Amino acid sequence: MQLSMWTYEGPPHVGAMRIAASMEGLHYVLHAPQGDTYADLLFTMIERRKSRPPVTYTTFQARDLGASTADVFKSACHDAVDRFMPEALLVGASCTAELLQDDPGGLARTLDLDIPVVPLELPSYQKKEYWGASETFYRLVRAFAGNRQRPENIAPNSCNILGPTSLGFRNRDDVREITRLLSENGLDVRLVAPLGARPADLAHLPDAAFNIVLYPEIAETAARWLEKAHGMPFVSTVPIGVEATRRFIGEARALAGLDDMPLKGFEADRLSWYSKSIDSNYLTGKRVFIFGDATHAIAAARIASNELGFKVCGLGTYMREFARDVRAAAREYDVEPLITDDHLEVEEAIVEARPELVLGTQMERHIAKRLRVPCAVISAPVHVQDFPARYSPQMGLEGANVIFDSWVHPLMMGLEEHLLSMFRDDFEFNDGAAASHLHAHSPATDEVRAGHDVLETGAVGEEAINIPVTASLWTDEAERELKKVPFFVRGKARRNTESFAADKGIHPITVETLYDAKAHFAR
Predict the structure, then answer these.
(1) The model's pTM
(2) Over the range 182-198, which residues count as b (16 or more CB within 10 Å of their CB) and which as e?
């Protein structure tokens, strides 16, 4: 067992909580000791839900171990049904309670409750959060749609959207965007599940002609079962990016028999216009490191390479169940795939890849900040700022516009920082110069200059990230010239130059050495 300050996925019962929190009329009784209620904070503080998730914990204590914890679980089930009056009940155990082997499913069957009970067996020491969510959704679909007879007359343009959940990255807005886009193109979305659905709604899944899997990590298992049990095909193309959205709509309309109609809604695309503009030349070939869940990481690599002209220098995921898909994508970009849930390995890979932009989770945001590299968050797990109150999808055409803003702006701000640094000593633009368009003002105070000096190494109160400066190693002129290098690659330039000087036996490093090293490593 390895202790860590960060985990990309929680235990599988957290995944089950995500499904329970996504649906209406569903309650989850979790056999867990006191202290395992921490997962509530993910929903109330990070996702900013108006109410706590529909979960009842048994919260047994050490003294209960001397008696029967099974009786504690039975009482919790009765109390939950009486208090919340759910339409269906999920029952399971946390990773700690699993060791007691109380069998929540078997215990629940002995209670003769008058509502459906779906038992969950989630191996906490072999599987993780996303698998738990996928398994829970599959069990619910099978329980409620298993005995359903498919109607004879089904509208060919009817479909279901499967996969969006609570705590998902922009799932709420993705559903709104994709539902609108499908409607514009002649498709009828009958049901979205699990987000916003009720247990009884799952019985009507076979009433649609086909399914759309927006998030394979959550819904692919259920979609494959529906295909096998009810003959329902499904669209698996994830509509992230302009190209993928166009292909997604084409596949959905082909299943609905509408493929002879022109695509609608693509006039809202702005990303493609930018990619064709002269401004995009400033960022062509920028090195991008990508890490996250499989769906968003693979899509981000495709957009970065095919739609924005970036160079993918790293690609990885923390989801071992989708390692094969990520490895296949990595081969397309000629990079070594990174399959790990250790954030320290991810940090080492980022440092080695020397990217100019990092696309990742909340953890990669922290890593990039320490390395002074621009970053955009593209995947869960995320923090509270990635659940915005505004409309901010990742899928569809508006999602492509949001991606453009989120990815390109950090790079453009990097260029702006470079210009500020380059002109800092200019006679007209230095800190003590009077404003050219306003009344003259006195030169900046020492405190202001000190604040500007901090920008060279890090924010106020932060530890400097750049490699320590050795005064005797660099001449003053070379140090000033080094500051003209953009801050997000300045550390790399310093390391390369010092390595070059050491190999050549050069001391001290001059301006000429700096440019000789640049020419050497550019070959």
Answers:
(1) 0.79
(2) beebebebbbbbbbebb
